[in-house]
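Subject — a protein and its fold

Tokens — whole-number codes for backbone shape
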Amino acid sequence: MSRRPEHQAPPELFYNQEEARKYTQNSRIIDIQAQMTERCIELLLLPEDTPCLLLDIGCGSGLSGTVLEENGHMWIGMDISQAMLDVAIEREIEGDVVLSDMGEGVPFRPGSFDGAVSVSALQWLFNADKKSHQPVKRLYTFFSTLYAALSRSARAVFQFYPENESQLNLLTSQAMKAGFYGGVVVDFPNSAKAKKFFLVLMTGGAAPLPKALGTEEDNSLEIKYAKREASKKLRGKPLKNTKAWLLEKKERRRKQGKETKPDTKYTGRKRSGRF
């Protein structure tokens, strides 16, 4: 049986309540999501020290959105799984979330976003889960509406898992047809375990693709992520998932006028293994 989830069921069925909760509390998945999102942010080339409004495509339970928050950005997420979005809301994420099938287009006004990220979602568009689904058409609909929803200097970065060369070619051809420039960046191309694919798309004209990781030993995603966490500590920012970090996040939510659970003596305490 294939280990790829997109071969097992449509995403809105595969990520049911049980799977959504299991996914969100898995420490390995949390770590991988954080590393992939940090790399997406790096490839976006956003202006330094400037909060941006980003679209998180296939946002799931908000694991990648949490990393966007930590980097000082605002975000809106879209996902096809209601169960995943329910978990995101339970987690009191700061971004707003929308139930939406990316194959039917990006449901936002033109020029709304300064950039877009996506972690482990793009490969689902190759599935024909319904008789009406035509992957080529769905890809073009997605990319053309995403192009419209981005500002004219924005980038979109997708970390994804292609199955073969033809999928890579189809992705890039449909993205270019929709108006984007760009291509695929492959980090650690010679490593079976660390190899990662990123589709980097640009709206503002052709530009050189960012350099892939993997040429230097100390350039690994794990080390880069650990260094960022350490630098936050040096800058006086609370580390992720500590009590100080949680209190700061809840205070930001209150300032945004969002419903937030009150602080108690249990805030920030380690929970048992059950979600």
The mean pLDDT is 84. DSSP finds nine helices and seven strands in the chain. Residues 27-44 form the longest helix (18 residues). The longest strand covers residues 150-160.
